[in-house]
Structure formats: C-alpha cells, structure tokens
Amino acid sequence: MLETLDKISDIVAIVAGGAYIVWSIVRRLRGTPMSTKRLFILPIVCFAIGIYMAASDVGKATALDWELLGVFVLAAYGEGLARGATIRLYEQDGIPHQKYNWLTVTIWLSLIPLRVIMVVLAQHWHADVAGGTDMVGILLGLTFLGEASVVIPRARRMGLNLSLSPKKTKAHVG
Q1: Pick from 20, 101, 103, 118: most CB atoms within 10 A?
Q2: Can you tell me where the transmembrane regions are (predicted)?
C-alpha cells in the first residue's frame, strides 16, 4: 500500500514538474521579465522535486550509479550552459527580459535523446539508480542552473539590472 502511494506521489511530482517546465518554456518563448530571483526559482523547484524523488535511492546506488550520475550531471549542466548562450537578453520599459528562440528550444529538445542514451547505458550496465526516473528533477534543475550561470554574467555585461523585480518596478511607477 505504501509503495503504491509512493509511486502515485512520484507520478504527481513528475506531471506537476513537467507541466511547470513546459509552461516556463512557452512563457520564455514569448519573452519574460527576468531577475536573479526568477532565474533561480526553477532550479530550486526542480531540485526539491528531484531530492524528494531520489531520497530513497541514495542507499541503493552502486559505485557505477554514482559514476554515471557524475557524467549525467556534467551533461545536464553543459546543456544548460549551451542553452543559456542562445537566449536573447534585452531591456523593455526599463526591465530586463529574456526570450527563448528556436535554437534554444532545439537545445531543450536535445535533452530527450540525451536522456534516452543515459537510460540505455545505465540499463546496459545495470545501474538502476542512474537510469531511473528519480534523478530527472535534479538533472533538470542542473540544466536551469547552467542556463542561469550564462545568462546572469551576460546580462550584467550588457548593463541589465537583474536586481529589479518587475513587481517592485511597477509598484514604483504607479
């Protein structure tokens, strides 16, 4: 019974996390205001879901699982770095904005075959933890962290003030 509840909560977490990520991508395709806080919310949400899901797997992980996870972590972070380099940064009404383009989305879509390759390799080598779904949240969080690691310095070099929250700015304009 508890195992069934755990699986249901895992499914709910995956669906909720996936929906949030899709919503974020669609919003960013349109262009969205950005602040340092906003750039870190998504990685934190993904990490929280991932840690919740992966907590029970830590004790089951083999040395090979940890080695593969290390490679997967680097791949996920690297994908985020590449994605961050493609994002259009601009100022609108005094507020810094970011906008995804089709290259950004293509890099996002590259995560699908990358994850399939990761799972196939992990299954081939019987590394069940590394090949399981429980680490997906952590890996997604790392892609967003990689993205922010590129976007924040780029925005600062452009002179965009990331400390301005769109809500704070609108309140002062009022």
Answers
A1: 118
A2: 6-26, 38-56, 68-90, 102-123, 135-152
